Input
Amino acid sequence: MTEKALWWQKGIIYQIYPRSYQDRTGNGIGDLWGVRERLDYIVDLGVDAIWFSPIYPSPMKDFGYDVSDYVDINPMFGGMDAFDRLLEDAHKKGLKVIIDLVPNHTSDQHAWFKESRCSKDNPKRDWYIWADPKPDGSPPNNWLSFFGGPAWTYDEKTEQYYLHQFVPEQPELNYRNPEVKQAMLDVIDFWMKKGVDGLRVDVIWLMMKDEQLRDNPPNPDWDGVNPFNSIIHKYNMGLPEVHDLIKEFRAVLDRYPDRFMVGEIYQPNEELMTYYGDNDECHTPYNMQLINTEWNAKKVREAVDAYEAILPEGAQPNWVLGNHDQHRTASRIGRDQARVANMLLLTLRGTPTTYYGEELGMTNAVIPPEFVQDPPAVNQPEIAHIVGRDPERTPMQWDDSPNAGFSEAGVQTWLPVNENYLYINVKEEKEDEFSFLALYKALTKLRRTEPALNMGSYRSVDAGDDEIFAFVREYEGEDSFLVVLNFTNRIKTLDMSEISRTAEIAVSTDMLSEGPVKLGALIMAGNQGLVLRI
Ligand code: NOJ
Output
């Protein structure tokens, strides 16, 4: 890669869940006017691009992932006017804007589905996946919804079932119909023309389904916890045909300069790699391993090394610690290790994505029963603590005023503000030179300025201790860095003199240690991570 790396190759992505970032209209739900006011904060974080979870008109049955119009902005978020101004301001400030494209399913309130469900001979009938009941009246096959229950809903009027792998109000489009494909290509073209810089494509690996709608095989390894995992999703995910469709999406982006497409995919490495295509599918398919891998140095090193080893030549890696579907990092691994995790995220090779609030060390909130609203949690109370996503979607914590500066005092926010906002918030952390936020900014600053960190090679190294993960980043003719991460809360003394005799601390997770160190006897405090200039 040359110095002229593209923005998404060098840059850091910051994910905003729009309902929870900043409420300006005073209804307890975030909006784009609010985000616009916070752009300077985002620039100051040292990130390069914002990814917005869906902001389209939507009945909000799945909080925006049920889209009723792909070429407009929800009035609740400020409508197209707010978006246009936000886009303009973001660009002026040097930020790129990535929007979420949700092509797999629409809302049942989308005009396409309203037509489709009218009658069996409606011209849009075949835009969705309809099938006859089995002779006993049951659903056409055994496919399950991610959110609990069958993936099929019966339509009394036309006496057929339609497919939905999420809530019943999210019917799935039929991409075997060329008109559907063309309609979605037109949607992509609309946003490219408007000047958005990229797309995060929702459940991209789910877009094609078995033509014969065959039953999925049972999963012999099911642990009995989440019924969704009781079958192997062979015929409804990752079908070979999906790659042709993704190529057509990409071809639209490629008609415009510097556009970026990242696909949401939860698949093992071998499968994941196929979504790069021949550099004609995703620029990078989301790599969720830091979320799914057990948090210990050995397992994480193995995961990083395996991913690095299997990446096709020239393919752009990426790393994610959290998103709106995953419990917050600081709750999964503890706040002390979350600092180490942020250091890892921001020093690995490839595009990092940070979920809003993770720069502060925000944690999952306890959601009182009357506030639980995420469909998988509502539908399956017995496993709500595992599948529910409300805890990680609570309002951004800006300061210690009532409602944490997210909404005016006295407003009922759509999800409760986490009680720890009194001490985990932007204002507090800005004033504290040792804070989570201070660490995050020190890391982004270093990453932005050092070619070894934003473009250099990666090589893991032995620290002589399984509980330490260490690696070297290098770029020809520039300073190199050794990153050493202590995954335990115990002091460690390491001999890393094979790498270099001395080194200089560039960033320490405690934001305290500095100066030269001798690598022959490197002392690491518990939960400490170091980026060392060597
Ligand atoms: C994946 C999204 O990230 C999630 O939030 C959503 O519920 C489903 N896709 C359905 O769109």
Remarks:
- The mean pLDDT is 97.
